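Q: Start with the shorter request: fold the first protein.
A: Done. Sequence, then structure:
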Amino acid sequence: MIGFSEKEHHGLKRAVIYARVSTKTQLRDGHGLESQELTCRHYAEFKGYEVADVFKDDITGSGTKRPAMQEMLAFMRKRKRSECFVVIIDDISRLARDFRAHLNLREAIEKVGGVLESPKMFFGDDPVSQYSEGIQALNAEFYRKQNRQQVISRMHARTLNGYYLFGPPFGYRFEKVVGHGKMIVPDEPMASIVKEALEGFATGRFHTAAEVRRFLEKFPAFTDGKKNGLGTDVAFNLLRRPLYAGLITVAKWNLFLHPGKHEPLISVETYQRIQDRLDGRSYARPQVNLHVDFPMRGIVNCASCDRPMTAGWSKGRSAKYPYYLCQTKGCERHRKSIRREKVEGDFRSLLHRLTPAPALLALVRQMLQDLWAQRQARAGAVALDAQREALAMARKSDGLLERLVNTDDPVLIKTYETQVKALETKRRALLESAKKPAENRKTFDGVYRTACAFLSNPCAIWDRDDFELRKTLLKMVFPAGVSYSKTEGYRTAGIAAPLRLLERIGGAFEGVVEPGGIEPPTSCMP
């Protein structure tokens, strides 16, 4: 069954110890690395062996690619010609808990001149010893698989009870809670940032997943020092996660939208709005040049069918002319175009009539002061979070440097150097980001002047003919889109609440439809 050549133990005076655990529980219940080492040292003393080194792994026993195991083999390989080593393990399951992995590691140890020994069993090449070793190796694999099945069953049952057990997503961390055990809880300041991103997409503040990604990349906790920022799918996956709405989905267990007991960051209604927006984007993405030429595209809807208008250039006898038009079949305005200057001109007139009263500006100032205080507090929390992560990186780097000093294997040296370099890069990026809130801190008066400039004269921003500024302005005025009629103009129901305040305090719009049942002015107040 196991065909290993016989090794003469005669003259073997040096030994190495290999210890392994796969879970933190084993460290606590007496089967930890220290207890294994102590047992092996007692055995080496009894046999008269001199322990040359100790190698410890904290990894599963089902595989063979283990850092400490590779270090041990490299250590023995360099000394194979000058001396042989006894490899002492506490128990056969410490070598491996997979039959194939056991055979591969036995062969690897033999190739570098090692002889495997244990205080709990004899490793020989006679038929009885080989049979006993094979049975025990198979038993170790059987118990590993059985334990795994039991763990999965317990996890399944706990998940059915409403507890999420997998890796926590952005904005959550695991914590012991009285009466619940270990469960996910909001992790500030990341939780507030994720909540703002999700609600921003649901309300139309962010129109695409790419905009959500750019928003998240402003915070170092999300980028983690990555030069290229977040991956393209990170924001999309974040928007799709029902966990943020308090719902648990585990597809491999056929568990979908199961109520969880953790604290949600958003409501189920908000989550559904996000999914509706994502699922409604099945049409082809418009060309970039059309976006630049038609900034209202994607914002303005047909007043007859309330579907988004498209836009394009119509070829005349001697030139091309820009138009907005409805392409919805069955609509009474189907393919009836409206000149671009009409659609955008009416919008400019709407902006021109937004004249604020002094009382409104005083109210806005108070609102911005409250928002300013919240943002400053968040900036401080983000900076503190970055400092803590940088400190953790420094500790991990020190540990790798210590291992680097104690090894002379070229492969390991290169591996450690690469890891240390990567950690140092991340640490510096975190420290730099932690300084930014203090370096870039602006006065409230400066921020208020910017906001006041918009509220006092939004038309001036539109007239600057800057595409990005115009799109930003459109999002602020019409966060959820707006219906437009060629004869009646824009509907005030689509205008953002602060701008509706401008209308009511500064004077009613002329030529703007006021639909019935609109809320009283006080309902616009935050």
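Q: Next, the second protein, separately.
A: Sequence, then structure:
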Amino acid sequence: MNKKQKKMLNRIISSGILFVILFVLEKINALDKINVFIVALLFLVPYLIIGYDVILRAFKNIKKGHVFDENFLMMIATFAAYFTGEFTEAVAVMLFYQVGELFQSYAVGKSRESIAQMMSIAPDFANLEDDNGNIEEVDPEDVLVGQTIVVRPGEKIPIDGVVIYGESFVDTKALTGESVPRKVRVSDEVISGCVNGDSILKIRTTKAYEDSTVSKILELVENASSKKSRMENFITRFARYYTPVVTIGAVLLALIPPIVIGIMTGDFEFINWIHRACIFLIVSCPCALVISVPLGFFGGIGAASRIGVLVKGSNYLEAIAAMKTIVFDKTGTLTKGEFKVTDIRPINGITDKALLRLAAHAEGLSTHPIAKSILARYEGDLDLTKVTDLEEVAGHGIVCKMDGKVLLVGNTKLMEERNIAYTLNPTIGTICYIGLDGEFIGSIAITDSIKAGVKDAIANLKKVGLKKLVMLTGDRKDVAMAVSKDLGLTDCRYELLPTDKVSNVEELISECSSKDKLGFVGDGINDAPVLMRADVGIAMGSLGSDAAIEAADIVIMDDDISKIPVVVRIARYTLKIVKQNVVFALGVKLIVLILGALGIANMWEAVFADVGVAIIAILNSMRVLGKK
């Protein structure tokens, strides 16, 4: 408990002790001989101890023009009970109301803990190293891109960058939910918010602080609460009209029946009907709804953050619960995006090494991922002075001369264009066919492997009820279909440009029913338009581009898509809890309102219908955090 909660607990205990003493004295008729004004003053002591802040808030809100809130309802109801001689009920109502408020405050605090852990990732300082090796402790916002920072063991990495010295384990738990530390070496990229383990690291910054991962995450977390679900918006609008309506209803209940009955019988029972109006007001307090619904969604967002998934608002939690179609980008999302040479097939006496040497020299100046994979596999030295007349044929490959011989490295179209007979390589992936002086000498296959855990994630998405699982890719048909078949997807669309992806997602959205939602999972800059167009955009946070993370509604901090079905379950469980709270609260209140108006329910039933229902609803909401 914080200081404010402890202070409230002490007030509850003090007021509760006095109330119990007075309650017992009243029940044994010990107060009957005391003047009623003195009895009223005695009960006024525990009432003011526990309720003075409610009364002050009510008057402050009235001055601001915000009349109809729970403080106003509790003040009017208890004042009316007090002045009709129901001292015990007046104190009991305020006491139990404050017990409910304390419980609510504690519950909100607990539900904030997971998100607060994410907020604690913000670094307080950065150790900036100058050209002479001197280290100065500065504000992270003062560090420029390209400068060197030193991160000692146990310190948070303040800014995204690349390791230029040292080797250590970094704890990414606060960001990704992953408990196993990750080892980083020279040339490895590191993100801010992680905690350095056992050795000193020197990092060259690649981003300014405001553009770094930690800063972006904190901004997203701070803005998450402003994006309310449809159910939260409904409750807000409901409370806006509900409270003044029941207040006017209570006034009418206190005046019209006794006047009508009095005219008919001559007996004006105002006290009895004012008492019923007090019960009506207490029951009508919308605390259970106004608190438990946002608390339920907040618990869902907190539960997601515990596993390293950032949900930017409760509206997105509501949307992913209704998701029936999910669309994936291929490279970097379903596959690693790391191209590697997996098959070398030389012919006519050419060795593997000789074939790789020719391909590596032809690709030596290219920055294409395919070229990089060939260069990574070739372990020899490159002498690019031997390569002349280099020409890149768009959509076909490379033509050049090496040692005076014409060297071709490209696809089947290049071979066919130059009338070179080739042997088809059946390997699934990107195939580079190589010709030398008009003769086919072999082929090299480059493939992108499927990420670990993706197959299980796809299977789990089907288990949670997703009907369509679609892959969109710019890759060739055979490669795309092979990946789709291996993963068990229901649809695959290939050879797409970034604009084609948007039109395909729009087509898939049009096929969904009005209640069903579509989610898109991507990681690249070219995925940003599709992430924004989808009902739920899900981005890879660790390897994903800044544009994709900014455009997405949900961010998976460690790129593990196996967490998507978990978030779907969290979202659906959250909505189930929220709906239970709404039905339970409205049902109980309606019953007790009717009983109170008929004179059957008393103040104690009213207290249960208000405070009791609120506590039960809050406890129910907290189940989201405890769900494993």
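Q: Describe the second briefly.
A: The longest helix spans residues 230-265. Residues 126-155+159-211 form a domain with the Calcium-transporting ATPase, cytoplasmic transduction domain A fold (CATH 2.70.150.10).
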